[in-house]
Design a protein that fits this description.
The chain has 367 residues and is α/β, with parallel strands linked by helices. Helices cover 42% and strands 15% of the residues.
Length: 367
Amino acid sequence: MITPDQKITFELSMLSNISAYATNVDPKSIQAWTTAKTKQVLLEGEKYLGKWNLVWGPLVHVEKNAAANTMFMVQSNTSPNKFVIAIAGTNSQSVYDWKVEDCKVRATNMVKWTSVVDFKESHMDLGKISEGTHIGLNILLGLRDPETGYRLLDLIPSILRSGGEIQVTGHSLGGALSPTLALYLHDRFKNPASKDYSPGYRGVVSCMATAGPTPGGKKWADHYNQQLGYNSTRYWNVKDIVPHAWEERLLKEIPGLYEDFGIPKSDELIAATDYAKSLAVFGEYTQAQGDGHMLYHKAFPLEGKNACVQFLNQAVKQHTTAYIEIFDIGEYWRMVEVITHAKPYPPATSCSLVSRLAQKQKESAEA
C-alpha cells in the first residue's frame, strides 16, 4: 500500500523531471528556468507536498542543447532531519539520455563497484553496474552549485553526523540512478569497509525508486540488498516496459506485454527486443529487491493504425500517466503542467527508436 509519505516522495521525484519541459528555452537558460519553476512548484504546491526548503540545486546537466540530468535536495520544514534527493528520469528530447545513460549496458563495459567507491580492500567482488549508469552517477556527483560552489557530496557528511535521514528517489532513468546513488552514499560513509567510513555518521540513507531499469548485475544487486534492502522501496508497473530492462527474463516479456489489451506482437518489436537482449547478454542484470512492489494499471484506449504504434502509445502512458494515477497525484501534476507549460510526450520518438533498434538487429543477423 502506498503511504502518504511515499506519495509526497513520488511528487518530489516527478518534480525533478521538469527540466525536460524547457523545450522552447535557450539551452544556456535551462538551468535558470528549472530553478525558477522548481521554486514556484514547491511554493504553490505546499498543500500537496507540505513545506520543503531547497538546500541544494536543482542543478541541470545539459548535453547537446537538452537537459540530460537534473537533481536537487530538499529539507522538510516540519521534520528538519528529513532530506530528499530527487533525480530526474530520461528526457525524451535528449538523444544523449537514450543512447548513453539508458542503453550503454554491454557486459564487456560494465564497471566494478569497487572502482566506484573507495574501499579499504579493492579485491572484494561487489559486482558491477552498467556503463551508462556509471556515466550518469559521475555526472550527478560532479554537479556543482554555481553560487555556493558546493557539490552534493559536500553537504552529505554534516547531515549524516547530525543524524539526518536522506532519502534518494527517482523515476525511470532516475529509478536506476537513485538506488545507485543511495548505495554509493551508504557505502562511502556508512559502510565500515570504506576508507571514508566514520562511526560518527549516525544518519540513515534510504531509497524509493519507481519504474527504473536494472542498474547492475546480480552480485551488485545482492550487495545492494545486503546493505540497503531493508531501507529501500521499489515500485514498478508490470505493464511498463522500462523496468523490464535489462533483466533477461523480463526483456522476453516485452513483445507480448499488451496482448491481453488487444495489441498483438509485431515483428518490429520482436526484433527491437532481440537487439536489446543482445546488448545486455552476459551482464547477469538483476533488479535489486527482486520484484519489489508490483503495481498494475488497466489498459489505456488504443491509439494508432498498427500494432507497433498502438504498443508504443500504450507503453508511454503505462510509464508515465499510469504512475500519476496509481499514486493519485493527478491534481498536483496538473498544477505542475500549468506552471511549466508542459507538452505531451511525442510517441513518434519512441516509434522511430524501435525502428532503429529493429534495423540494428536485422543488420546483426545478416552480418
